[in-house]
Amino acid sequence: MRRPSLSSLKRAHDRSSQTLEQAFDPRSNSLNALRLIFATLVIVSHAWPLGGFGGDPVVGGMSVGIWAVSGFFVISGYLIAGSRLHSSFGAYMWRRFLRIFPGLWACLIVTVTLFVSIALFDEGKGIFSGLASRASYVGIKGLLVPGFAGIARTLANVPYANAWNGSLWTLPVEFICYIAIACLLSIALVRRNRAILIAVFLVASAIDMVAVELSFPIAAQDVVGLTTCFIAGSLLYVYRDRVLFNTSLGLLALAILLVAVVFAQAGAVVALPLAYLCLWLGVVLPLRSVGRANDFSYGVYIYAFPVAQLLAVFGATKLGVASCIGLTIALTYPLAVASWFAVERPAMRLKTMRLPRRRELVGDRSDITATAQRSKVRSEIPTR
Predict the structure, then answer these.
(1) What are phi and psi of 294, to 5 degrees?
(2) Exposed / middle / buried, residue 207 (Cβ in 10 Å: 0-12, 13-18, 19+)
(3) What is the DSSP track for 129-148?
(4) Is residue 381 a part of any domain in this protein?
(5) Integer CA distances (angstroms), 218 to 10, 157, 183, 224, in order
(6) Is there a domain that residue 27 lies in?
(7) Number of domains, the chain
């Protein structure tokens, strides 16, 4: 039997001792593909309650939809921390605004002008009725204010009544996370000692575990859990030069999640292993071309719920859950594509062409020097 050469052993050792920073190419990865998968899984999960087939499917104590949104949040935490550490506070917040609000506002306008009018017509009502409630809906949801009951008395007879876009509840949580991580990484003490972020993560995890064990309201558990996931992603970015990256650790993260699922304790321990698993998959999956130039995941996420509700208005729920899922995906994807090309991408062009370069906000002087050298050959990290 041929013995492995010293050079092959060295290459294997080098791969096993890579850090996350060395393994993850910010310009060529599969994170956008993962986000599109997660957005589609939200459609699948919502098909049950929106179609009157029961509650969302649950895996390990968490609905499939919350699993998917948690994946969104850990990826956002990683990318958004990178955005903050490579730009000024003002440039960072401007980019976050451009990525969230124009697409959201367009979706709200489409909902109240097209979807609501179609629903009113189907119900034999005037398509121009309820203009005040439509305007209120756009104003309230457009400012990320939680809660709103119905538009123009539509959706009264569908299985999930009076809610045109239940998916939007996560956007205020995400935007608050954007602001919180930006403020946290602006504090001089945190910049000098990144271990503080570990303490923040541990506190968030403890609150998450208490919320699960004491059976807090589901909405409160979800908010705390998603926030913890976002912090976990940010923590991996801050420590990307220290975190080892290899297949063994990726499989270990998967194993931890599987054990948590078996014991129905996923909500208490999901954040960090899920964050690592998503980053690992972002490197190893051969899906780099999906979403590299055009990221449709946000459009899929914000349009799927109203599409499913409109299908329910026309009785599509009678076709069964599989048909509802297929129809929702088939009608949502074209809207997501239109949203990207007509609204989201043009809005992102309003950002500065290049963020001002600055020293890393975390790490010691040797880390800063190494990062400066790498920046000569690597472009800035793409963000959502």
Answers:
(1) -135, 115
(2) middle
(3) --HHHHHHHHHHHHTT----
(4) no
(5) 50, 25, 28, 10
(6) no
(7) 1
Q: Is the pTM of this model over 0.70?
A: yes
**CA–CA gap between residue 169 and residue 99 (Å, rounded):** 17
Please check the confidence at residue 123 and state whether its pLDDT lies above 50.
yes
Class of residue 381 by CB neighbours under 10 A (exposed 0-12, middle 13-18, buried 19+): buried
Helix (H, G, I), strand (E, B) or coil at 29: coil
Position 9 in a domain: no
Q: Write down the H helix ranges in 52-156.
A: 64-85, 89-110, 116-122, 131-142
Tokens standing for 275? 């964050």
Burial 188-203 (b: 16+ CB within 10 A, else e): eebbeebebbeebbee
Domain span including residue 56: 34-375
142 lies in some domain: yes
d(C-alpha 212, C-alpha 198), whole Å: 21
Residue type (1 letter), 179: I
Between CA 221 and CA 71, with CA 239 as vertex, the angle to 5 degrees is 35
Contact 227, 80 (CB under 8 A): no
Q: Mind listing the pLDDT tens digit for each residue in 167-189?
A: 999 999 999 999 999 999 999 88
Exposed / middle / buried, residue 272 (Cβ in 10 Å: 0-12, 13-18, 19+) = buried
Residue 98 contacts residue 350 (beta carbons within 8 Å) = yes
User: pLDDT tens for residues 212-255?
Assistant: 888 889 889 999 999 999 999 999 999 999 999 999 999 999 99
Q: How many CA atoms lie within 13 A of 44 on its CB side?
A: 15
Q: Cα separation of 223 and 236, whole Å?
A: 20
| DSSP state letter for 342 | I
pLDDT tens digits, 264-277: 777 768 899 999 99
Rounded distance between C-alpha atoms, residue 361 and residue 82, angstroms:
10
* φ and ψ at residue 322, rounded to 5 degrees: -65, -40
Q: What is the pLDDT of residue 291?
A: 86
